[in-house]
Amino acid sequence: KSWPNITAKKDPPADAKDFDGVADKYQKYFSPNPGEGD
Asked: Are 34 and 1 in contact (CB under 8 A)?
């Protein structure tokens, strides 16, 4: 299964600034599973 294409730019999540500067974000929050798409 492949990742969905990004077809439109969206606004950042409301909590985006909460994650700015957080260490190890990739290891803590990355999921190898594809998202739902647009």
From this structure: yes
